[in-house]
Write a structure and sequence with these properties.
Layout: E1 3-7, E2 11-13, E3 16-18, E4 33-38, E5 46-51, E6 56-62, E7 65-70, E8 75-80, E9 85-89, E10 94-98, E11 105-110, E12 119-120, H1 123-134, E13 140-141, E14 146-147, E15 157-158, E16 163-164, E17 169-170, E18 175-176, E19 181-182, E20 187-188, E21 193-194, E22 199-200, E23 204-206, E24 211-212, E25 217-218, E26 236-238, E27 243-244, E28 249-250, E29 255-256, E30 261-262, E31 267-268, E32 276-279, E33 284-288, H2 321-328
Parallel strand pairs: 13-15, 14-16, 15-18, 16-19, 17-20, 18-21, 19-22, 20-23, 21-24, 23-26, 24-27, 25-28, 26-29, 27-30, 28-31, 30-32
Antiparallel strand pairs: 1-9, 2-3, 4-11, 5-10, 5-12, 6-9, 6-11, 7-8, 7-10, 32-33
Length: about 325
């Protein structure tokens, strides 16, 4: 995480002033992309993200604006108003741009092409990643695994013939079994189990304490064509404590609720509510389940925990299963 103000050369005479910027000489990277912001409406704030690998130089080539920088521990505000001055922002630095003057033009020089998988747009996830990077100890990586990411939490184990791409984020105490693949735009929380034969594609976000059974399948494109890619892959979210059975298929763009249970071989085609069980093709609602894994009794109590389930009161006890399923949707 690095921030630095660069003062570029000013070459001037009676005709005016010229400021040259040469890649890998005046700035510490090759320039792959240039864009600029202008006409920003009053009181608007831009940014609200960090990058995993991208490096940028911000130059206010007209007018002025302010930049809030946050490394997870300390916040700094820098005002940009000098045309020969550039603000260098490295990876894992949260930024927000605001207080634009009416005539402001903010130019950005970037070290790479646009890649949505490089963005961290959720502040809480940003803080989690920083915490995990600081505690990245006792990670086990099998000699026959390919792990390109440095965003691996402590005590996580990654077994043979697994491949983790460079921008993936994996939390603490996870177990990533043999013959798995984890793409770039993937975030996996703490205490997650990923069994063998699971491929996790761009757009999948997995919360803490999730179990993914062997050969479970994720998709991220509803209408795939060879060599044709959408601007952004659909996002699939697996919430805390959910379990996905062996050979289940999760169709792109759906959310699996907290502690929900997806049966083996099920095909999930819609959002799944918290604390519910679904199986079949297509998956259908089959009842309620406790966080411990026991099916709830008719009074919404867990036979193992002997506690009243939080779903009680949301759906009437006397309604038939068709009505329950309709409300669950």
């Amino acid at each position: 995480m690095e921030v630095k103000l660069f003062n570029f050369k000013e070459i001037g005479d009676k005709r005016g002033t010229l400021t040259p910027i040469e890649a890998s000489k005046d700035i510490p990277f090759e320039i792959r992309r240039v864009y600029y912001m202008y006409g920003t409406v009053e009181n608007a704030r831009r940014g609200y993200h960090a990058h995993k690998a991208l490096k940028q130089i911000l130059i206010c080539i007209n007018g002025s604006c302010k930049v809030l920088l946050d490394d997870g521990k300390e916040k700094t505000i820098i005002e940009l108003s000098k045309r020969h001055q550039g603000l260098y922002i490295g990876e894992y630095m949260w930024r927000e741009m605001y207080d634009f003057s009416k005539d402001a033009v903010l130019m950005v020089l970037a070290s790479d092409y646009y890649d949505e998988t490089d963005y961290i747009r959720d502040y809480e996830i940003f803080l989690t990643i920083l915490k995990d990077n600081c505690q990245n100890i006792d990670v086990f990586i099998h000699p026959k695994a390919i792990v390109e990411s440095s965003n691996i939490g402590s005590k996580t184990k990654i077994w043979a013939y697994s491949h983790v791409l460079s921008k993936a984020v994996i939390g603490k105490n996870c177990n990533i079994c043999d013959h798995t693949f984890i793409e770039n735009d993937v975030i996996i929380g703490d205490n997650v189990t990923v069994k063998s034969g699971v491929y996790i594609w761009d757009g999948v976000k997995i919360s803490n304490n999730v179990f993914i059974g062997p050969n479970a399948t994720f998709t991220n494109d509803s209408r795939p064509r060879s060599k044709q890619y959408p601007e952004k892959f659909k996002e699939t979210i697996i919430k805390e404590g959910a379990s996905i059975g062996a050979n289940a298929t999760i169709v792109a763009g759906n959310t699996i609720g907290k502690y929900a249970l997806i049966g083996a071989g099920a095909v999930v085609t819609k959002n799944i509510p918290d604390y519910t069980m679904w199986y079949g093709n297509p998956a259908k609602f089959k009842g309620y389940i406790c966080s411990c894994g026991e099916q709830l009794e008719s009074d919404f109590r867990c036979p193992r925990c002997k506690v009243e389930h939080p779903i009680k009161g949301d759906i009437g006890e006397n309604e038939n299963i068709c009505e329950i399923e309709r409300k669950a949707q």
